[in-house]
């Protein structure tokens, strides 16, 4: 099965490359800049047609949450217009599309995990652009699976886990927000979930359960408890660690509003694909191992 994924350096893409390397039935091709650029619409479709995917994974995105407040046009061009063009190109060659989305499409209100049918209500430019992307993908390709995820970390790229370990190298105490809750999610688990979907599409010609799903780590935490677990795991292995001081969102203002509740229910994904990510702290340990090895 030939899987083409947009983006080359993102956490999920690099995790997919690592996981797919152990599956000989899969040929994975990553498309990235400069030859593949979502801001250059005229080249997007041609590049996808040339790659001839059996399945297209739409992972490339504008992810600078705060900067998006100053660059709404660019965020919209990539996350909405670009995503729609990718999905349309897949439809034109008869390929389904898996599109990655985010918890930021929700307002962050309430005290329970969001389900796929809950009303959306993004509070910032980034979330609005991703929601517009979901709508564009759904309109362009009826064979779509939109996977919303949250709080992504991995051994690759920039993420919260790597930031905490870096700060602990020079600080004894780190202040971390304690009133935002979500599902810490390993990009390696997202890759496993995507490959689970790909296998289902490959083996089930009658598959019709297209639509929106949540794919995130099992269990939830706030940012400060996530940080404490990071340092506990790192300390076990002789890596950097620090004390965590709880602060409130109001104590750490950002240009873009963060949702206080980013928890996602993954029951629908489990019901359809019979797969659920491990508990988030279980998935964290091997990522910490790899990061310490790299250093």
From TrEMBL:
Q: Does the keyword Oxidoreductase apply?
A: yes
Task: Provide the E.C. number(s) assigned to this enzyme.
Answer: 1.1.1.133
Superkingdom, according to UniProt?
A: Bacteria
Cite the entry's keywords alphabetically.
Oxidoreductase
Q: What is this protein called?
A: dTDP-4-dehydrorhamnose reductase
Q: Which source organism?
A: Phyllobacterium zundukense
Q: What is the lineage of its organism?
A: Bacteria, Pseudomonadati, Pseudomonadota, Alphaproteobacteria, Hyphomicrobiales
Q: Which gene encodes it?
A: rfbD
